[in-house]
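FAQ: What does the model actually see?

It sees only this:
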Amino acid sequence: MQAQKSILQHVYDHEERHRDRIYLTQPIGGGKVKNYTWGEVVGQARRMAAYLRSLGLNPGDRVAMLSKNCAHFFIAELAIWIGGYTTVAIFPTESADTIRYVLEHSEAKAIFIGKLDPIWTEQQKGIPESIHKIAFPLAPETPYPKWDEIVEKTPPLEGRLDRHPDDLAMLIYTSGSTGRPKGVMHCFGRISFVAEAITRAIVFTENDRVLSYLPLAHVFERAYVECASFVAGGHIFFAESIDTFVEDLKRARPTLFLSVPRLWLKFQQGVFAKIPPKRLNLLLSIPIVRGIVGKKILEGLGLDQVRLAGSGSAPIPAELIEWYRKLGLNLLEGYAMTEDFAYSHLSKPGFSKPGYVGVPHEGVEVRISEDGEILIKSPGAMVGYFKDESLTKASFTEDGFFKTGDRGERTPEGLLKITGRVKELFKTAKGKYVAPVPIENMLNEHPLVELSCVTGVGQPGPFAYLLLGEEPRKRLNQGTLSRSEVEKELDALLERVNAQLPSYEQLEFLVIASEPWTIENGLLTPTMKIKRANIEARIEKRIPGWFEAKKKVIWE
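And it is asked to produce this:
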């Protein structure tokens, strides 16, 4: 399937027709913001593209970006494309070793350094001396050439410079939940089609407002926010920091809002900290009161203008979706992968059910293999894995379907339900296979639980390692919540979950983690999915003692 026009042609149309319309709003500290119109965005991109060419780069060379979400990420991506190059975005939380690996593996010739945390002092050790470096306006203090100084003195590239549909637009390196990240190649023809199709699917228009805060190095934000806005227009806002997130959200008052399950859960736990769940559920059960209460809560979250909310990147508990819908938020779940440029499944009116990720997007084909694996043929399919033809070949069936590695089932209407990962199935000492993800989803529905990891490879039975939510952890420290109260709640949770499971999947006990799981300590990916192998390695030596304790709830 082909796009109506290339993504760059859409951008040039905005430059010509909406030159003075604000496109990007960037916080610059102290509550102040800087706005960039379409004319300024494309004008700066043209000048930076000319500068990249002056460095002697060859057509198709890779140019990297290491930055949190900011206006100049968008502008630099356009500059790279207009100049004739391929983008390599690196997660802003990556270690120096991973940064060096990505830069060397991609053979990047230049890198943009952008908005980063203090860990930059360590990260910069992963950047080779030989590579060209350019600093965004919000970058840490560096000796590198500065963006504003470059665009001020560099004449722009003129004309509607375009790229061939088969040219590589970007390498997206997977977030590395297991092993080294892989470079997924996407070409202009396919990302252009996907960007157009997404705008049709979610009715993204020039009047929509979006807050961009999920990592742009991840395919979800890149496709649904950046590339879709290159086609549709709209007004994109950025977040300044975690501390200012609520203010940033209220400034944007987004009409479209995308998040991941962990953040949707954190929002809910924040509400529960102010209104006890039982009282809130009672209020939401009264028809005449529900609308007033729901609107007030959404206003407090900055989500009262949202017409469409989405959750992706990881499974979200069905009960959490239902809870938001009671508030009046149209929260929909989707399903896709880096390898199909986030273009696979999405819930939509008439085809939406909590616990299901929707139906195939336009042009997507899907089938379930004999062993239960979801196979996808998408118009957004990757060109392949960079420098790994054998892995590329092994990842597709002979007739072109991508092997997702996810297990699933479909309803007669085409709704897809994810039931776990093919490779995440593990066998206990009883010789029975356990699928951890569905059990984790049941545990994660409880207000005390933020995340869970069900494991037990080779053990007498499975068990769950839990991370309590931020609010319960705070209350435990303050003494307003006791350990005995937590144990009582979790003991009841264990009983409820086990009652829904076959005997061989029933959990032996629950273990409460002593420390948070974070990106920095290697237990979460940059998109906040659990790093199962790292968690299992962390607790491996303590497992025999937990079984010997013969308790239902154990504190690490």
